[in-house]
Amino acid sequence: MTLVAVGFLLVVAYRQTLADEPSRSQARAGLVAQIEQRQTETDRLTREADRLRDEVARQRDAALTDKDAARLRDMEAATGLARVRGDGVEVRVDDAPDAVDAVTGAGKADLGRVLDRDLQDIANALWSAGAEAIAINDQRLTATSTIRAAGSAILVDFRPVTRPYVVRAIGPDDLKKDFESSGTARLFRALVDDEGMSFDVREVDDITLPAASEPQLRFATPSPSAATPTPSKSEGD
Question: Which residues fall in a coiled-coil region (predicted)?
Answer without folding.
Answer: 35-62
